[in-house]
């Protein structure tokens, strides 16, 4: 028995790879879904967006991410856009990451078609804006200077939705969907200097770093990783804005079993290690 | 299976990258260099369309001649190719560095220091419900102790002896909880990315997942 | 002279824009807006220099037939293909440029990050050992958070999600705040060192 336990930490890594593949694939094939406990941070973000007047001031969604983190952040973008379009909230889309340019456009144009929303009147997508914090500072001074024309080449003055939008005072919420530290930059340059309300949708890796900012109110809400996206999907279904959950909710079952696998692997590794050490000490 | 050749291209390139799991191989290396080359080409086009045209070409077309100042300064970058004059390349670097550093100081101080100090302070609202697990007085004191002890753990200008040793030792406990929480979220993050790839391969390419 | 002029520029601009933050007057705003625009124009030239370095490195490798030069040829061909696709075919949704981005670049980029999941599982299995009390605390905290994030965690114990949320909002937040202070102080110190000319690594060999 001791000999068997001592071998628990010597499994070939290809078997570990195979186990990971199996625990992810099977739940996806079986399409298991369950209800989630929704975090306060996600609730706060949902409530903040829900409080915006339909047809009034727009929210700004910044697609500050690259394709490598799209599996976590695309579902967030889709869920928030569905919420906004279903409620009639206008949306300004842009991005600070070069490769987020095409990602943002693909998502906004797909979701807008579902709700029959028109570019220029219900939403405006400006694509990638180079310069990072410089763009944030420009928006604080004069939005037209930061976003002179939209992704499709239409000039700012020809976009009916942008009339009356001058700076952050006319934008009730900035939502940064980011795979890196862009929310920190938004907090520093837009939140601190211009008192803009900032929320973020971040990868799960970055989520723990933003809790100090949630506590001080520098971030008004947050979606953390794929779970955050699944929580938001659940909230918009519960509120009646959509009928069914989407990709993130379907993926949560695979995440559940993968977490259990990781915990079991760590426990097995530790049992094997301590038993081996005990046998060596004897 | 999908009949779209572009989906097949995406799937085969994904599998080429995944082949690294077995071992480093020519297929993976080919895909890796293909990816980095495509990225460079993508950035060239993007830089032209989103930097050069709105901030150089359009001002010139609109006869805003002051733009010649940053153009002249930017051209100093090319002195890199003239060894005797290559020191002039430091001027545009100095401008960007000075501007960025000066701009950042007040913002770092307010966002990362003042606001965080404000958030750590015990305030009167905490007295209303002392035992509230999120906003109560007990939790407020715990956060205060945790923050100060964590900072003291990373203070290396003095040897960790006496009171500093006690606070640093307490700080490490909080740091370990923080790192454990970060690891938990990192697991979810990495698995999410793999699930995304699996969803593509088994939904869009091989129509196995509905 | 070669070093003093750039150092003086950094000092003057650095101090100016620290002070400018506190001066809301019109001339101050004009200076600030102008500098913002000019900084964007400078970025174009910096990108050209970066591009030159990359092309030069790989071209030399091909010309000298250095080790694995074939991959450098793949690299340069791909860069040229993508650039030509963008400049000639445009960058609209249906363009060849966008198709290459969506079906070649993006899948490879996502896959590179996806394989991290396998290596993370393998590393956790091989390296995570509860050798000390601190390491044990780290593992317990990780287990609580991992179980709290998933529906199965609530099935195991109903209070798991709330415990996980409390762990994130209180002890984790305290430690991350301490680290944020350190980062903020470090950033301010580095910026001051650059402005005052104490930090001179960016001058290189000049």
Can you put this structure into words, describing what you see?
- The complex is a heterotrimer of chains A (282), B (210) and C (206).
- Chain A has helices at 2-6, 13-30, 40-50, 70-87, 100-114, 133-141, 143-146, 182-194, 211-216, 225-238, 247-281, and strands at 59-64, 91-95, 123-128, 174-178, 198-202, 222-224.
- Chain A folds into two domains: 2-31 and 255-281; 40-244, 3-Layer(aba) Sandwich (Rossmann fold), CATH 3.40.50.
- By secondary structure, chain A is an alpha/beta fold.
- In chain A, helix 4 packs parallel to helix 5 and helix 4 (70-87) packs parallel to helix 10 (225-238).
- In chain A, 52% of the residues lie in helices and 11% in strands.
- The model of chain A has no long low-confidence stretch (mean pLDDT 90).
- In chain A, helix 5 links the parallel strand 2 (91-95) and strand 3 (123-128).
- In chain B, helix 1 (5-18) packs across helix 2 and helix 5 (137-153) packs across helix 6 (163-205).
- Chain B is mainly alpha-helical and 210 residues long.
- The longest helix of chain B has 43 residues, at 163-205.
- The model of chain B has no long low-confidence stretch (mean pLDDT 89).
- Chain B has a domain at 121-210.
- Chain B has six helices and no strands.
- Chain C folds into three domains: 1-89, no CATH class; 90-127; 132-200.
- Helices cover 81% and strands 0% of the residues of chain C.
- The N and C termini of chain C lie close together (10 Å).
- The model of chain C has no long low-confidence stretch (mean pLDDT 89).
- At the B-C interface, helix 1, helix 2, helix 3, helix 4 and helix 5 of B face helix 1, helix 2, helix 3, helix 4 and helix 5 of C.
Compact description:
The complex is a heterotrimer of chains A (282), B (210) and C (206). Chain B is mainly α and 210 residues long.
